């Protein structure tokens, strides 16, 4: 038996999650079981508990969508991995990563960069691959362009700042509050806007001489998206990453037409499903950036397994910066 958080009834994380003992997971063909060493809390974990995520695993399930772990058992037909390998990847639901043991598809288990701690390595997967595919594959970010990042002190936002700087862009980070503003500065943002104190539209226009941002990275949606259209450059690209603000925007396509900008969607998981080799190449690029020190996931706090329900609730309430991660050494 192993310990795992279980969701039996959907609701707010602190109410829905229960720490229980469950049978050891067994790998099916093409899968491996890993001993979880670290797992960051992602906003999708909040949505999974609420039943609001696009993936709806059968009840009960363990949240925890990504991890760094040590391979402890191989299923049939697994090649290229061995017991003891340190890997990162996405947990196979319903045996998520908020547990002592979890399951990974062997084809999607990637080598953990040696220069990163377990907690840092665990956060290099979803947020950084989202940033890499969004900025490079979908938006075609070029050196010298201006990148505006919303929720810049959060998990995906902090990754976008670092990846934008590594690509040679001028990065503007939008945050809420002075603590988060300092985090964005420490991450390397060239300009930081506290949305409680300043209007990011005006700041971007002043910075660019009225031209606007070439790429806008928006994991928030709603009003944030609507205001972003007021400072997007000619032939700019607005990346739709998510809707953490709770409102799915309805874009005015006539506005996109008259200003010649693109509204670009990104569902990163489709790349993993349809083009796993490109996802592996993206991980290799990210690993090189991590080895060089150009990117390093921001782990603001490490928590023990027993503290995870409250940690997930804090992420859902927007009270965290960077990544809060379950770490077995915490």
TrEMBL record:
Record carries keyword Oxidoreductase: yes
CDD domains: QOR1
Record key words, sorted: Oxidoreductase
Coiled coil: none
EC number: 1.6.5.5
Annotated protein name in UniProt: Probable NADPH:quinone reductase
GO molecular-function term, one example from the UniProt record: quinone reductase (NADPH) activity
């Amino acid at each position: 038996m192993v310990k795992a958080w279980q969701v039996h009834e959907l609701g707010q994380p602190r109410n829905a999650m229960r720490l229980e003992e469950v049978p050891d997971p067994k790998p099916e063909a093409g899968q491996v079981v890993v001993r979880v060493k670290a797992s960051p809390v992602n906003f999708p974990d909040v949505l999974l508990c609420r039943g609001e995520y696009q993936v709806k695993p059968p009840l009960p399930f363990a949240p925890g969508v990504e991890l760094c772990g040590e391979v402890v058992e191989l299923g049939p037909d697994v090649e290229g991995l061995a017991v003891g390998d340190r890997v990162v990847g996405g947990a196979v639901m319903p045996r998520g990563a908020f547990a002592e043991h979890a399951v990974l598809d062997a084809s999607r288990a990637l080598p953990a960069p040696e220069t990163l701690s377990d907690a840092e390595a665990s956060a290099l997967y979803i947020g950084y691959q989202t940033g890499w595919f969004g900025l490079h594959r979908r938006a075609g970010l070029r050196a010298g362009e201006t990148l505006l990042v919303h929720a810049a002190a959060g998990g995906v936002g902090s990754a976008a700042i670092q990846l934008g700087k590594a690509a040679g862009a001028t990065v503007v980070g939008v945050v809420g509050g002075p603590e988060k503003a300092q985090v964005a500065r420490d991450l390397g943002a060239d300009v930081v806007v506290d949305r409680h104190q300043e209007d990011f539209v005006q700041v971007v226009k002043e910075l660019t001489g009225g031209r606007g941002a070439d790429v806008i990275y928006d994991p928030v949606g709603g009003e944030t998206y609507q205001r972003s259209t007021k400072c997007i450059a000619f032939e700019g690209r607005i990346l739709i990453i998510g809707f953490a603000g709770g409102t799915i925007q309805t874009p005015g396509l006539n506005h996109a037409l008259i200003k010649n900008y693109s509204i670009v969607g990104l569902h990163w998981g489709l790349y993993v499903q349809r083009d796993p080799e490109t996802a592996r190449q993206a991980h290799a690029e990210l690993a090189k950036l991590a080895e060089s020190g150009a990117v390093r996931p921001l782990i603001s706090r490490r928590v023990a397994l027993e503290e995870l329900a409250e940690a997930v609730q804090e992420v859902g309430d927007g009270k965290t910066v960077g990544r809060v991660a379950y770490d077995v050494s915490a």
